[in-house]
Amino acid sequence: xxxxxxxxxxxxxxxxxxxxxxxxxxxxGSNLVLSARREAELxxxxxxxxxxxxxxxxxxxxxxxxxxxxxQVEAVLKTYGRIDVLVxxxxxxxxxxxxxxQFDVYRRLFEINFFSIVHLVxxxxxxxxxxxxxxxxxxxxxxxxxSTPRRAAYGASKHALIGFFDSVRAELHExxxxxxxxxxxxxxxxxxxxxxxxxxxxxxxxxPNQAKGLDPAVAASKIVAAVAVGKxxxxxxxxxxxxxLIVKQIAPxxxxxxxxxxxxx
Length: 265
Hints:
By secondary structure, this protein is α/β, with parallel strands linked by helices.
């Protein structure tokens, strides 16, 4: 796929992987729709993207407010007339043990990481079907394959996301619709700072592995390249996470022992 003049809508675009993807798609000549809750940050990202000579629509909203999803889709169509790529990057992580975590935190994580995405996708599917083209790019996680201690709800929500989009890919293939599910490992973002603790408050600490993670710009370049060639699923991250995925696939009996070793990280 050539992304020049394509309409790329990115949720969670105000920072981290979303911001890096916005700049990468802009460098490829894509016109953008940038969504997140923080309008000022979206405007900042938009300015950095506009230097590439592309059009940017800033469309701030909270993903969990599903009542506005149809309205946002209409706003994009009114501006550009189509949607070519929808990057579903909005989400939140977790740092808390299963027993300590208030039940409401589980619900909130799923509302953000899963249910809000399902609802927006339902609004966009008819657009893609009418166009007989379109690409969904859900940003899942290695945690959706290997759920580590203190990420139970996060890993479960990402596992659900992977499963959901496996079905979407199969159901919509006849319409020429692509699903490229992305599995990031440790990317150098502030995801752990904004993660929920057992009370649903901000964790507020930078994980050591996160701090040493892959540069978001490098990750974004790899992700866009994977989407361009139609990858169904794509891992992006470091050697540690890749090793974990290989072990999970070829020697799954070792994985429980490995996870016990990282219980307190």
